[in-house]
């Protein structure tokens, strides 16, 4: 029997392998697309791909996750590929499932790298919940399950791009200096 769910990963919410690609924009409606839709290999999104549009939907629990080709989008109108430190921001929202399956995560606002079990606060959004950094209180946390490097230099590049304000130029050590240590003291 033909495998109608050829995607070889599992839903981060329920573990199902029945994953369908979300079709954003106007579909072709040819026979191949209609067949994929009938078989559940494709589900319809909406007319427009938004900044945070997911790529996959679980056919069992209907969780939506992944990036809808975000890394392949052209950056601005200059025809350049979007730099990784810009595209990685997508992984900082609707990320509970991804972070809970990560072994390490980092905040690109304060630069702290930590274990995901330290996250206590989550903000609800349309698709999932978004982590709030336990050290600085900003929703700028990404995990290694996202595929992005959780390294100080990468987090710093992200911070400089997304938070180009009064903190520019502060090192990760300086930003972390006033955070509580493991015992809770400063």
Characterization of the model:
The chain is of the alpha+beta class and 186 residues long. It contains five helices and eleven strands. The strands form four sheets. It has a four-stranded mixed β-sheet. A three-stranded antiparallel β-sheet has the order 8-7-11, with no helix packed on it. A two-stranded antiparallel ribbon has the order 5-6. Strand 5 (74-75) and strand 6 form a beta hairpin.
The largest sheet has its strands arranged as 2-1-3-4
Rounded to the nearest angstrom, the radius of gyration is 19 Å
Beta percentage is 15-25%
**Total strand segments:** 11
> How is the biggest beta sheet arranged?
4 strands, mixed
Shape: elongated
List the topology elements.
Blueprint: E1 19-23, H1 31-39, E2 42-44, E3 56-58, E4 64-65, E5 74-75, E6 80-81, H2 84-87, H3 96-100, E7 105-107, E8 113-114, E9 121-124, E10 129-132, E11 141-143, H4 152-162, H5 172-176
Parallel strand pairs: 1-2
Antiparallel strand pairs: 1-3, 3-4, 5-6, 7-8, 7-11, 9-10
